[in-house]
Amino acid sequence: MKCLKMILQYDGTNYNGWQIQTGQAKSRTIQGTIQEALYKLTGEKIKVTAAGRTDAGVHARGQVINFKTESTIPVSRFPKALNSCLPPDIVAVAAEQVDEQFHARYSAKRKLYRYTIDVSPYPDVFRRRYAYHVPYSLKLSRMEEAASYIEGNHDFRSFCAAGSSAKNFVRTVEMCRVSKRDNIIEIDVMANGFLYHMARIIVGTLLEVGKGKIKPEDVKRIIAAKNRDAAGPTAPSHGLCLEKVEY
Amino acid sequence: MKCLKMILQYDGTNYNGWQIQTGQAKSRTIQGTIQEALYKLTGEKIKVTAAGRTDAGVHARGQVINFKTESTIPVSRFPKALNSCLPPDIVAVAAEQVDEQFHARYSAKRKLYRYTIDVSPYPDVFRRRYAYHVPYSLKLSRMEEAASYIEGNHDFRSFCAAGSSAKNFVRTVEMCRVSKRDNIIEIDVMANGFLYHMARIIVGTLLEVGKGKIKPEDVKRIIAAKNRDAAGPTAPSHGLCLEKVEY
């Protein structure tokens, strides 16, 4: 029996998120699709665990999963073998053997999410599945200032959607950075953990700042409120991508 | 009555090319979709003419069309109005009034096509619809040399697919350039006109050079042969994009 760690890329557009939904037997999820592919490949019913349980429509460039298998396929050939059983919008890009203690989520030290905003007057068709189109002029320096207040060790209850099972809302945002190139704004958020919808609520709040609806300093007040209603709206899922997980 | 010139972007993945196919009434084309959108917007049955009649699966970032309309919608607002009637994979990005002599295809001085190749070991999921995945090491300097022999005023019969209605096969390729950044190779071809499948046969031939199957100098022999069988295969359509048309 081997314990494997794999890195996945996926286009989340056509999936109802990472996690298999009990009850919604027919909804297509990333986890379900991978487990089916593993079954086709190995004949085993394998349960896979992911670092980030991404929402419906969210993408990944560096999702990490772990699972156990009796397969004799050499580890170095596992990604290619699995890809032959996967649809083209999910791709395994690396695999390595890990010890039994490794857990994709609990062992993770930090995760990096990137949110992409297309500020072109008309949406870029080639980015429409991966970027949120906001055809307004956004005040970048104000968004940068607001992002700096997100960084640090805070109680992020204001940035947690209802339905979360979290009991402790304190997380450390090691980096929250806004950058622009041509008509694309990227918001990178790196943290030791993310609450339910946290990255998207941070982005929704920074967009309120960029549109001039609230001031950068208001972010401090929003954090202190410890109340979801204080923060901005949840930005749409299709702009978000899980870029990297570090262990 | 106004004559309009418009610039379009489209993701060609889900279309059977630019041109309405007589006989295949049900096949979805870019031209048909735009004419339907114009009908919804203006109530007029408008015929649109394109600079490049792109094949099934080919994309455009700078397709140019022209058409006549009685509509009173101000020209500056026309793209946004039309976009509200178009599916999200076709976007009008600019419009201007032109005189009646303007013809998107016949008036064009040159067109630029770009072909994108993904040489990552595993296909990049976010580029899979827009880049041809070639997981081999390609000899870039040899491809560059081969591309230089494509440039110039030649009889391109060897690079013209059967089914073309062309009588004159002489075209001027003003630029044929190969460049690489990270795992992406781009082949830019600018010419005063393109024969049927010409850009894709040029790319297919340059790929044969990159893989070491033929030598860069062989391109001279292939041009001289004036025979389609002398050139390489036709590269798949989804890597090709009509970038720009100049008048």
UniProtKB/TrEMBL annotation, chains A, B:
Its EC number is 5.4.99.12. Residues 8-107, 146-247 form the Pseudouridine synthase I TruA alpha/beta domain. The gene is truA. The keyword tRNA processing applies. One of its GO terms (molecular function) is RNA binding. Formation of pseudouridine at positions 38, 39 and 40 in the anticodon stem and loop of transfer RNAs. Keywords: Isomerase, tRNA processing. Substrate binds at residue 113. It catalyses: uridine(38/39/40) in tRNA = pseudouridine(38/39/40) in tRNA. The keyword Isomerase applies. Homodimer. GO terms for biological process: tRNA pseudouridine synthesis. It comes from Calderihabitans maritimus. Belongs to the tRNA pseudouridine synthase TruA family. InterPro entries: PsdUridine_synth_cat_dom_sf (IPR020103), PsdUridine_synth_TruA (IPR001406), PsdUridine_synth_TruA_a/b_dom (IPR020097), PsdUridine_synth_TruA_C (IPR020095), TruA/RsuA/RluB/E/F_N (IPR020094). The active site is at residue 55. Pfam families: PseudoU_synth_1. This is tRNA pseudouridine synthase A. Signal peptide: none annotated.
